[in-house]
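step 3/5: co-fold with adenosine monophosphate
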Amino acid sequence: MEEALRNYVRLHRKELRSLRDAVRKYDRICIFRHIKPDFDALGCQFGLYHFLRENFPGKEIHQAGDTHPTFVPRLFPAPEKIPNSWFDSPFLAIVLDVGDKERIADPRFQKASMVVKIDHHPFRGPDVSERSLLDEGSASCGELVTAFLASFGRRKKVSKEAARALYIAIVGDSGRFLYGATSPLTFASASWLIGKGIDIRSIYLSMYEKKIEDLEFQKYVLDHYRITPKGVAYYLLPEEGLKELGLTSERGKEHVNMFSNIEGINAWCSITEDNDPKEPCWRISIRSKAEDISGVASKWGGGGHPQASGAKFKDLSELEAFLSDLDDLF
Ligand code: AMP
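step 4/5: write tokens
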């Protein structure tokens, strides 16, 4: 096993052992992750799902949550429809890549006999889990789940399918090993997964291949972006823009990173209208070159990581105040 991965497993052996014990104890397990999933959330969920199914054939394993407009079925199968009655008998809930209770994609985790969690989001509580492996410093939840799999030792097999999903998770949240939180553990986990025989060329193609329509989206961004006096670039995608481009609001953030690596741009955001009847709002994806933007995200109804966070506001009249909070960071 790669040295950094082995060291991590050794350093966290207590937490990892208590998570393994929980898995061994329950014959019925459901894996949860965050709403509006990304590569990391879905990759962790499917990676662990395949690993548990393949290595614990006597157990009933499920994965819960909403779907994704473009990753399903291109990268991951459609989510299962699990009947309510399934949750009436004792089960273990494994919650991945999410801290706050409100962001767990299916509220039925609350019926679990035990909740355990693996996550890398900054988290202030209250904690819904009894046991956990939490590491704010790690670039992806995928590398933590990989460490969990590695901690089972050689007797348990990691199939190509499980390795592929976890590799997608790691590559997705580390920004292809570019973001600052990328560490020896990130590379060691990726290397260990590649050793399981996955084809990374086809993985990158299915993760990042774009369609011609994406060029129109990029053109829209280039035609509409603005930059504040302190170097915060942003684009607004109102309902009409989404219609014109044939996009759902979840996809509004897809080209936010067009502004990375531009001199003079310190932070950048996509601001997309979301007419979800449950919570109509403008959803913001914020990214930054170096400064910690997670505090501003928390103030604006969201949260996340120092260089990648999500937030929202109700009305466009709040745009100026939001941008001014970001400008104050620089
Ligand atoms: P997004 O811009 O939606 O891709 O989110 C960027 C990162 O921030 C992801 O890791 C999300 O999981 C995280 N994030 C987004 N919204 C929230 C929130 N309300 N609370 C905590 N983390 C969040």
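step 5/5: annotate
The first strand starts at residue 28 and ends at 32.
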